[in-house]
Automatic annotation (TrEMBL), chains A, B:
Database matches in Gene3D superfamilies: Farnesyl Diphosphate Synthase (1.10.600.10)
Protein name: Polyprenyl synthetase family protein
Entries under InterPro entries matching the protein: Isoprenoid_synthase_dom_sf (IPR008949), Polyprenyl_synt (IPR000092), Polyprenyl_synt_CS (IPR033749)
Origin species: Flaviaesturariibacter amylovorans
Family: Belongs to the FPP/GGPP synthase family.
CDD domains for this protein: Trans_IPPS_HT
Pfam families with a match to the protein in the record: polyprenyl_synt
Keywords, alphabetical: Magnesium, Metal-binding, Transferase
Record carries keyword Transferase: yes
Cofactor requirement: Mg(2+)
Keyword Thylakoid: no
Length: 321, 321
């Protein structure tokens, strides 16, 4: 049983290989550039850990992990176009550097490359792995579309937001773990439990992400605090505040959202505190984390095999605020 | 042995099914809209005809044909974004109707759907069909990138242009036919010959397309003649003219390309005639068509089985100018 860190380093080393042909460089250099920007590689390591929970890591797991990471990078390149984001991990995005048309095509070909890796695994796993991969890919697209739809809606309920976040961010981690479980020979029940572990962990992670954007320590969080508030982004926090604030808080929140007051962040945070949004979010995060860990406990393998996944959950959720 | 028309109608009927879930409608309605715009469905029928050249059409051929047509539509949706095209088949494009972000995602999910169909075919064909599909998908992206690169270059040679056209438009028809051949149980040699038939036919078709844009009868061609000339589009004709014009023709052509004279189309056409570009293009088209037909003749099946493919070639290339 290997830790997240060990597997992440191993994956990073293997992933450094050149995944693309030399020519045309105008298409593939952007892909090479983007993959070099790095990342925590949580999802591909999820494949490896899902596999190792049940058996020794098989060769196919590395190919599937690579496909999952390429898929994730395809979504990032295309999301950056849609969000008109200038930076990714502190560096210019692909569309910023090479224009939106090349970014669009670079993303497309990144997705095709993911499928090429999937087509190289043992014949008996191709159908089930591709089925899960395709379903998940479709769900991630749906989640991104819902996220864009919500930007145009005034009222987004907590249920709707949860549904969107589940599709946009949770199912890929869940599916990565489950693909590993399939390759490890896990039965259907264990596969489902591991999938649910990943899904709940993803939700806990998103609550935490929303929380840190508002209440995090800027030095440790690594990005500007209050960005979501400034841009009126619908988050767990804002949605809960809009659902629970009353009287003058409710009115002030509405008027703050309608404008760009210089003290907007401080005043919205004050309302969040007054509504108890911070405590609520911490509890929600803990609940999802607890549910995730319960699913993990229920998986029918020796408890000590689960240790790396338990550590991963705590590492992802208890990162420094 | 069924004709292109018969198979095209059968395919159109089957393809009318709803390929996408109901929700989110904001994502899938654009896909449904785009598929309803229609088209000649040449590529999916290529799969069916490639199959029937060797054997009775199998169920898998319909699934692969569907995947090929969904892939083609994915490229059209994304190409329309890149070209900022307002219309497709006389109707607003997806990005024009729903914005570029939704068009981007609608294309992405169309591609994923294509892979879903491929994952449903008989296990023994999944790997070879996906390998060819993936290679082709990558090549089509490369062709589109080269096409965009060429817009920025002053000098594009005939060889380079051929390479681009081959990737952007020929390999998909070639691969469609070959996928059908694989499903029909064809051997490697016959597969290669059919692939080359499709590739050469694609090149002949593109020469013809470039030719008609300049020399076609506007009433029969169905679109404005001279569009490529007005936009300085690199075509077989312009590239050949730039390579062969000399003296005053060469100078005049350069100055016409640098400006937007009201009589630009007429004057460029006059230079084309002076350089013999029209006769050259007709000969080039005939040569590719002849090479295609020779490859078809070399395929080791009874000649009468080839009749529908021969007819398809003549139908595609001798369409009314």
């Amino acid at each position: 049983m290997q830790s997240f860190e060990t597997l992440s380093q191993q994956f990073a080393t293997r992933f450094q290989t050149d995944h693309f042909p030399a020519a045309p460089a105008t298409l593939y250099d952007p892909n090479r550039y983007f993959l070099k920007l790095g990342g925590k590689r949580v999802r591909p390591v999820g494949v490896l850990m899902g596999n190792e929970l049940f058996d020794t890591i098989v060769d196919d797991a590395w190919a599937v992990a690579t496909a999952v990471e390429l898929f994730h990078n395809f979504t990032l390149i295309h999301d950056d176009i849609m969000d008109a984001a200038p930076l990714r991990r502190g560096q210019p995005t692909v569309h910023e550097q090479w224009g939106p048309s090349t970014a669009l095509l670079a993303g497309d070909v990144m997705l095709v490359k993911a499928y090429e890796y999937l087509n190289g695994i043992s014949a008996k796993y191709i159908v089930p792995i591709n089925r899960l991969f395709n379903n998940t890919a479709r769900e991630v697209c749906e989640g991104q579309q819902l996220d864009m739809d919500f930007e145009k809606h005034d009222a987004v309920g907590l249920e709707q937001y949860l549904h969107m976040i589940n599709l946009k961010t949770s199912v890929l981690l869940a599916a990565a773990l489950r693909m590993g479980a399939i390759l490890g020979g896990a039965g259907e029940r264990n596969q489902n439990l591991l999938y649910e572990f990943g899904r709940k962990l993803g939700l806990a992670f998103q609550v935490q992400d929303d929380y840190l954007d508002a209440f995090g320590n800027p030095e440790k969080f690594g990005k500007q605090v209050g960005g979501d508030i400034k841009s009126n982004k619908k988050t767990f926090l804002l949605i809960h505040a809009l659902e629970t604030a009353s009287g003058s808080d409710k009115e002030e929140l509405a008027s703050l959202l309608a404008g760009n007051a210089p003290d907007k962040v401080e005043r919205v945070l004050a309302i969040f505190h007054a509504c108890g949004v911070d405590a609520w979010a911490r509890e929600l995060k803990d609940r999802y984390l607890q549910e995730a860990l319960t699913h993990l406990e229920d998986i029918a393998v020796l408890s000590k095999r689960k240790e790396p996944l338990r550590e991963l959950a705590l590492y992802l959720i208890h990162r420094e605020a």
